Amino acid sequence: MADQKKNLDNPEWVSDDTRDHGRIISVDHTAPCLDTAQFHQLEQAFRKWAIDSPRADVRFSRLRILIIFLLIRYTGAKLNEVLGVNPLTDIDTEHHAVTFGSTGSETGSKSRTVHLSESLCHEILKLVQTPQFEEKQGRMPDLDPGFVRRKFYERAAACGFAKELGGPEAIRRARAVELMQGNLPLPAVQKIMGHTSAGLTSSYVTFSESEIQDIVRRFMEKESGRKTSARNAFFCKVTDIVTGDIQTRVEMITMDGHPVVTVITNDSVFQLGLAPGKWIVAEVKAPMVMLQDGTSVFKGSAENRFKGTVTRITRGKINTECIVKVSDTTHICAVMSSSGTWLSRIRQGDPVWAFFSCFSVVIHLD
What we know:
It is a single chain. The protein has 14 helices and 13 strands. The chain has helices spanning 2-8, 36-51, 56-75, 79-83, 87-90, 118-127, 131-135, 145-158, 168-181, 186-193, 198-201, 209-224, 266-272, 341-345; strands at residues 91-92, 97-100, 112-115, 232-243, 247-254, 259-265, 279-284, 290-293, 304-315, 319-327, 330-337, 351-356, 362-364. Strand 9 (304-315) and strand 10 (319-327) form a beta hairpin. Helix 2 packs antiparallel against helix 3 (56-75), helix 3 (56-75) crosses helix 9 and helix 10 (186-193) crosses helix 12 (209-224).
């Protein structure tokens, strides 16, 4: 466990084990992690366990464990960071955020703030509105880290998972993977996880610190509220707008420099208040994405084309799903008919072009 924790806290150590999504937090090459569905199962187990006792003192102890789990699960914070949180003073219910290290630490690390969804923020506030929390003034430090770990392991085992998958470090790792699978831009994931890399973030010069914070905030709200069936989401900044008689061409750029183009009605441009410099989210459904052999130049009229490498193939009787890695922060999912001859020969690691029409791109601000 000590070696695992060392790897988890070293952002330069990277593994291939997370389907190319665990790039900002390290993972043991052989270590699996919880997926989103398993996360949900574990979270429900924690919630049920937290209130499943007739004794008020036991419920209070378990509620504190639940709060610690929720903060690690949704912020990817370290256990020692969360144990230093005072929910009554360190959670900002107005701006929906939690501040870690507000009272300082033995290591002298600086405080940092991570956005929470509005629903999670108010849920935690409701949980701490008890006489026991008020008596202890919301403090967590008297909880023994070893005791917390044991309770995490117990909940994981109760769900039928290997207990190590429920440990604080494993949950932190799985949260990073989950964020990357959601196509949250790398600098934003780094900010959430408390990692910094000047060499890496310098490539994202077109996005300011405040814009990255805004992306994190909006992602958290989207994750907890509005759902979408679109598999591909790109965080983009509008670079140019060309208005026609009926429709408008909107040109954008992703955080890692990939151009994306959409054509929408003039009314939509007005209603969305689009203008150069504004950041938006562009979504494309997986069936709208096509693939072409990447060993030669692209042949086609599609405005949006990405050169990448196949990282995963899931073949079905009717359809085949392919995940294409375009860059460290851009993965594109394509779903196509399994009957194609060329598609039947494609293998993991093959170079491909992923492309889609400008009319397949839907943009939104929320």
